[in-house]
Design the sequence.
């Protein structure tokens, strides 16, 4: 015998309940995601609770019945949009000008010197698009350097399979990825580090996504607007008053970093919210590149214009 009648009845009742939360799929590991828990804790006033689940835009695209929102880099958004035209980018949480850190002892004094070198990154992510874009601007083709994989590190001391440790050990010559791994890699080799960054060549556009399914449901839409409103209040705190509000400590605790490292990479994170007219050109170009690496056809500009949906921002 396992269950009391009361337990069975409660269980059945629970199963029959309609879904009563705003469900958000997001990686819980990175700095970029932290405005979401902060917004839920401090500002969100929706009619239902908001819950964060580990995941991303792929979960939203494949299971629109299980999630109302997701957060991820634009790279993952574009990959999903190619096959799921119901996905919409509705808000920008954060834009991050990624950096490449290289070891000067390997004869690297400018970006073009990375030709023929071993560069650490994650294939298939925003980081590999970043490395590609950076190298392309100095005329170095993908085939003219070697991509090496490795793990990221959030806090020193970094394990030996992480990119900062591989740079220190000399098994890679450089690496490019999201923070704080680059900061920790630069720390690991001290004055031998040289950094490359250019936000107009590549920046991660870490965005909030929804689906037309959720956006066309009036009850869900109301809570989505409330959540974005809460995020917008959060971005004001993150951008303008982080120190006064203990944000460096908050973020450090959320993602397992040291607060001084959070503070030193803060400048690389732009808490944008909305976007300018240049974003469409940026994603059209990026989608062309991703279409090649993913062996699919590029999404048309007309469809990408639909992907960028300002209608929730307009309701704030
Ligand atoms: C960034 O890249 C753009 C486009 O290639 C270039 O015009 C600009 O000078 C670069 N900025 C820096 C600081 O290198
Ligand atoms: C968000 O809040 C700021 C104030 O911090 C405001 O200027 C802005 O227009 C709001 N809306 C969006 C979409 O960012």
Sequence:
């Amino acid at each position: 015998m396992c269950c009391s009648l009361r337990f069975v009845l409660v269980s059945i009742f629970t199963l029959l309940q309609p879904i009563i939360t705003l469900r958000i799929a997001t990686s819980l590991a990175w700095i970029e995601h932290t405005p979401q828990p902060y917004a839920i804790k401090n500002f969100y006033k929706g009619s239902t609770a908001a819950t964060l689940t580990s995941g991303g835009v792929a979960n939203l695209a494949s299971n629109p019945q299980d999630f109302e929102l997701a957060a991820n880099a634009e790279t993952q958004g574009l990959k999903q949009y190619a096959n799921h035209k119901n996905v919409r980018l509705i808000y920008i949480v954060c834009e991050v000008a990624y950096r490449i850190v290289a070891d000067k002892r390997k004869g690297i004094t400018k970006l073009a010197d990375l030709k023929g070198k071993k560069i650490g990154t994650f294939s298939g992510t925003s980081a590999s698009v970043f490395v590609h874009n950076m190298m392309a601007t100095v005329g170095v083709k993908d085939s003219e350097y070697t991509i090496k994989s490795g793990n990221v590190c959030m806090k020193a001391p970094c394990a030996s399979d992480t990119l900062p440790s591989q740079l220190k050990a000399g098994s890679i010559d450089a690496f490019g990825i999201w923070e704080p791994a680059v900061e920790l890699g630069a720390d690991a080799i001290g004055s031998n580090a040289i950094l490359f960054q250019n936000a107009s060549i590549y920046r991660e556009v870490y965005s909030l996504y929804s689906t037309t399914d959720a956006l066309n449901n009036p009850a869900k839409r109301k809570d989505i607007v409330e959540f974005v409103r809460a995020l917008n209040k959060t971005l004001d705190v993150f951008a303008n008053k982080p120190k006064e509000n203990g944000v460096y400590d908050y973020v450090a605790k959320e993602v397992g970093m040291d607060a001084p490292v959070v503070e030193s990479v803060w400048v690389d994170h732009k808490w944008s919210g909305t976007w300018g007219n240049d974003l469409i050109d940026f994603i059209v170009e990026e989608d062309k590149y991703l279409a090649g690496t993913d062996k699919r056809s590029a999404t048309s500009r007309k469809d990408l214009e639909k992907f960028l949906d300002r209608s929730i921002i307009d309701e704030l």
Q: What stands out?
A: The chain has two domains: 2-95+203-315, 99-196. The CA atoms of residues 65 and 249 lie 35 Å apart.
